[in-house]
Specification:
Elements (H helix, E strand, L loop, with lengths): L4 H9 L39 E5 L6 E2 L2 E2 L1 H8 L12 E4 L7 H12 L8 E2 L15 E5 L4 H7 L4 E4 H7 L27 E4 L6 H13 L18 E4 L4 E2 L7 E2 L1 H16 L7 E3 L4 H17 L8 E6 L2 H21 L2 H11 L8 H5 L13 E7 L14 H9 L17 E3 L2 H12 L5
Parallel strand pairs: 1-4, 1-13, 4-5, 6-7, 6-8, 8-9, 9-12, 13-14, 14-15
Antiparallel strand pairs: 2-3, 10-11
């Protein structure tokens, strides 16, 4: 990821620091607003306790399994709304799904949970694409399923071409399925503009077609009328959403996700060219981009409700160690480092540990990664809570050799995310999302009225 290289370099040098193992009890920062009545006969009721924390909910495996709601989900959300139907804490739904619009997902959640959800409370894997404005005016090829053209335009892209449009214009390129091959010789239509970037929203329907045409675009520099140039580097900018290797639906075992498709694309490209496929950006959990965007939406909700306390703690509830837990812990490490950069003693400790000042990311180097529209985070921690209703199986057999387990069995994360055992260690493990909400309220000493 060319744009994020400085950030990751500084972040990973510090990866040997011990991550926070268990989320400790957080002292209550909450207070009461309003004034006390002078009347001794009719005391005024206490105002709603104000939160200083926000919640990040995964969807698949936490709230639903495929199209079936998990029973604990409704129970959890009964505790999160007041008698007027308003949420008592700011929250967002952070999903790696990317095959529909945010409003569509919000409508689905409203129906499942029985509470009104707005699109501003939903983060799809592609939502952070709105920050990549330098690509919005370029001609981009999009891959995925669902209304991909509408999704692309919704996040800001103005000139979009789909895989289907591409194969219709160049019918000789899609040759795996014999039944779809042209019956008669065909010439390329060639009336499309030159592709300038590729955006991967999610797993497509026909993997062979998408893999072939994406590789064609990368190896011809966007001009499908020309031949492959396997030595041409660098290739066109590539932006990918959703790195989930697997996800949990109604089946007993996890199903292939977009991360599996990315593994195929990366290996095919390297097999043909001998070079690694490079990403301009990777979005969706566990990317820091996604968590920063989530924190921005949490902060916005608190401002809209005119809650005075800053949101200093985030709690990410998920079922997947490699995305939900890894991502929350990685963002927590980023927040830790932001605090450390402002602390001379902490900086001196890092320099002593690494023997070099280059291990300390500079403020402007890191914060410029994020678009100014999001502003800097107010949160100082992001705690991870793992539930047992999805991908994570607490009864799974663990190899006797722990080193083998960590290196060979556990890490199914994306190629470009370096493995650190501390980052896949959840702050807490609970049975389901209802227990997670109870735990968080207890941690924060939060008692909704």
């Amino acid at each position: 990821m060319r744009g994020l290289v400085p950030f990751y370099r500084g972040l990973y040098i510090l990866s040997n620091r011990q991550a926070r193992r268990k989320a400790g009890t957080v002292g209550s920062r909450c207070g009461f607003c309003g004034t006390q009545s002078n009347s001794k006969l009719q005391p005024q009721p206490q105002a709603q306790q104000q939160p200083s924390f926000g919640l990040l909910f995964d969807i698949d495996g936490v709230l639903v399994r495929g199209r079936m709601p998990i029973p604990a989900a409704k129970k959890a959300f009964e505790k999160l709304v007041d008698s007027q139907g308003q949420f008592v804490v700011p929250l967002v739904f952070v999903t790696n799904a990317g095959n529909c619009l945010r409003q569509t997902k919000a409508d689905q959640l409203s129906h499942i949970l029985g509470v009104p959800i707005t699109q501003d409370q939903v983060i799809m894997s592609h939502s952070p694409l709105r920050m990549f404005k330098k690509f919005h005016d370029k001609c981009v090829l999009v891959s995925g399923q669902g209304p991909v053209l509408e999704i692309a335009k919704n996040v800001g892209f103005k000139n979009v071409v789909s895989i289907d449009i591409l194969r219709e214009s160049y019918p000789l390129l899609d040759m795996v399925d014999h039944n779809r091959r042209p019956k008669l010789p065909s010439n390329p239509v060639g009336n499309l503009p030159k592709v300038e970037a590729v955006v991967l929203f999610g797993e497509p329907i026909r993997w062979e077609t998408n893999l072939q045409l994406i590789v064609d675009v990368l190896l011809t520099n966007g001009n499908l009328s020309s031949v492959h140039k396997t030595q041409k580097m660098p290739h066109l900018p590539l932006l990918a959403c959703n790195m989930d290797l697997m996800w949990m639906a109604e089946a007993h075992s996890p199903r292939f996700g977009h991360g599996t498709f990315l593994v195929c694309l990366e290996n095919i490209y390297k097999k043909i060219t001998g070079k690694d496929l490079k990403y301009e950006a990777l979005m969706g959990k566990p990317s820091e981009l996604t968590y920063h965007f989530a924190e921005y939406l949490i902060r916005s909700q608190a401002m809209q409700r005119q809650w005075k306390l800053p949101i200093t703690s985030l709690y990410a509830i998920g079922d997947n160690l490699m995305t939900d837990i890894y991502g929350a812990n990685l963002y927590n490490r980023y927040l830790d480092e932001r605090v450390a950069r402002k602390n001379p003693k902490a900086i001196a400790k890092m320099v002593a540990a690494t023997g070099s000042t280059t291990a300390v990311p500079q403020e402007e180097e890191v914060d410029n990664m994020w678009e100014s529209e999001l502003a800097l985070p107010s949160a100082t921690s992001c705690k991870s809570v793992l539930v047992c209703t999805g991908v994570y199986n607490p009864k799974a057999e663990v190899p006797c050799d722990a080193n083998h387990c960590i290196k060979e069995t556990v890490f199914h994360g994306h190629r470009d995310f370096r493995f650190d055992p501390a980052l896949v260690e959840p702050g807490h493990i609970v049975q389901d999302v209802a227990e997670a909400v109870d735990l968080i309220f207890e941690q924060e000493k939060f008692v909704p009225q």
